[in-house]
């Protein structure tokens, strides 16, 4: 009888202790060492028909890059990753692997799945630390030129794919820094901005041109871009904040999550006055909503010195849309969850600053259109909260800046761009779209998946004219 | 970098005029639109309505008052220096049309820089245009010559009576509203109290009034909602739906409060900047 191999447990990743990290903006998980990564990689069964790959929206050859790590061939690992993703260091950190690749891992049926996300992060970080610029080969120049509008996850995926296929690519970004939601939305402690910048630099090294401070729809229109580009990809994100539409919402100290996070992340208000952009510092904070953006806002508020941070959510724990890991991290750091609770008005002081909010208790009724049980207010259950900072993180809508200035682009009744779900083709010839401006607010990796599909379709169009 | 090609200090150094290289913006910009400027890596994004554009030369002109750390930092920039970031043109252009009655353009303080291109635009659209500009005192008055050229008739007011009419722009405006000529439109830009009182007055006379707002904003593309303002009881975004709104519908008191959101922090930043200047840490 063959000797039974000793089982290796899924390797944990060291983290900053909750009581320490809630006071700083340093990254929470600290990454694998080479030894730990190789040990974790050795758990992979190298399945002949890998199901994990089917769980990945950009179809990374997961067994292949893990095999490289197992052998200590870290260069090989990063090359394998870069064949399919322009953002390995980002995906390794912010993808919801637990519902994608890792959810499909065979090991997960009886045991814990291989820590694919942590290994991806390791390979990308290792390459960066060693200055390893290993990358796939670039095809011969085609003479075709593509404009990518928006430098978020879907846009840079399109840019990375098409530059490798030999096309010229220019990325237009409205902000003064490239990266989209990766720089303005996701906080430093979850995704260091230095890492995003290095991923952008890697694209620039491949020949992608970045034009910053370019507001398409204002500085130039989509039609004007056709004067110098053969195809256009729109990946501008959702970009329109949702508010509650309840009394008192314009009091000082009430922010959309977009504004709160942009001030802190992109403008570095957490370093005020070293950086010039101010931010309201709340001691007693309420964040409305329970998605990843809400968790990011709540954990940012803690790090900006809040004594108490509450998540206020109108449904129950089961419906919370945030990743399990984010909720877990937030709870560890001391964030309180007030579920089945909905604000109905905000009350200000004599200077127009928010000082409290009135809430109502909710209960779950029949399922609504989203399939989730509809929250219904409980009569006479009103109560008051004191608060000096409120962040509204209840989702985002479609920003009309491009759609309203581009004739021929069809939109849904909510303003999202109508695009083919397989190819990303819009109703306007030569224009593709993907990511949140098509689907509504979703995840980084789904936007990247849309970018991958559109890039393939754009390549076909530029090569064969369809 | 967006290079400064011309620089002039006005109103005893409290106001600065910059002509900046920005060819794409200059080509696209229309009266009433604004840009966002950021001086350097650590700087704040500051919205400023364009005072002029020159599509041929590829330049835009901004005129700003030094009110805090960010504008004090702008003031340190000389010809040949530049802004790290500039984006635009943002916001909706002024809707320029021909009216049968007078169009009156009212500018208070640096608001005169905002109404100047609008005044030119209405004149070019064939209107009979009256300019009314005001400042606290004669030495702080800006663009008198330019506004004289841009309008058919220009009235000047100073709060202290050192030049022109002794009193507020609203006094002079009232004369026109009660005069024999029909007034079709009033456009006002300047301090919030001025816009508020102009709007209050014109409402009594039933004269359509546009005000150009200067809300605090970050992105300028409708993404953050920081510039939201109540207009007719509805939330509107100054950056994409403005900066001009119906003065009779704007909640000016809320706007005033929101503009003061960071007053304490701004003051601390300014004191630190002054201190660093004195000990030579800047530049």
Topology:
The complex is a heterodimer of chains A (466) and B (283).
Chain A: H1 18-21, H2 34-41, H3 51-54, H4 62-70, H5 74-82, H6 88-94, H7 101-104, H8 116-129, E1 145-149, H9 153-164, E2 168-172, H10 181-184, H11 193-206, E3 209-211, H12 222-225, E4 231-234, E5 239-241, E6 254-256, H13 257-266, E7 284-288, H14 292-303, E8 308-312, H15 324-332, E9 336-338, E10 341-348, E11 354-367, E12 373-377, E13 383-386, E14 389-392, E15 396-398, E16 431-433, H16 436-439, H17 444-464
Parallel strand pairs in A: 1-2, 1-4, 2-3, 4-16, 6-14, 7-8, 7-14, 8-9
Antiparallel strand pairs in A: 5-15, 10-11, 11-12, 11-13
Helix pairs in contact in A: 2-4, 2-8, 4-5, 4-8, 5-8, 6-8, 9-17, 13-14
Chain B: E1 2-10, E2 15-21, H1 23-28, E3 34-38, E4 46-54, E5 59-65, H2 69-75, E6 82-83, E7 85-90, E8 102-108, H3 111-124, E9 129-135, H4 144-150, E10 153-158, E11 165-166, H5 169-178, E12 183-189, H6 192-205, E13 208-212, E14 228-231, E15 234-237, H7 238-241, E16 244-246, H8 252-259, H9 263-278
Helix pairs in contact in B: 2-9, 3-4, 5-6
Detailed description of the structure:
The complex is a heterodimer of chains A (466) and B (283). Chain A has 466 residues and is an alpha/beta fold. Chain A has 17 helices and 16 strands. Chain A has a 5-stranded parallel β-sheet, with helices on one face. In chain A, strands 6-14-7-8-9 form a 5-stranded parallel β-sheet. In chain A, strands 10, 11, 12 and 13 form a 4-stranded antiparallel β-sheet that branches. The longest helix of chain A has 21 residues, at 444-464. The model of chain A has no long low-confidence stretch (mean pLDDT 93). Chain B has 283 residues and is an alpha/beta fold. In chain B, the strands form 3 sheets. Chain B has a 7-stranded antiparallel β-sheet with strand order 6-1-2-5-4-3-7. In chain B, helix 2 (69-75) packs parallel to helix 9 (263-278). The longest helix of chain B is centred in the C-terminal third of the chain and has 16 residues, at 263-278. Chain B is globular, with a radius of gyration of 18 Å. Chain B starts with a strand and ends in a 5-residue tail after the last helix. The relative contact order of chain B is 0.13. The mean pLDDT of chain B is 94. The interface between A and B is large, with 40 and 43 residues.
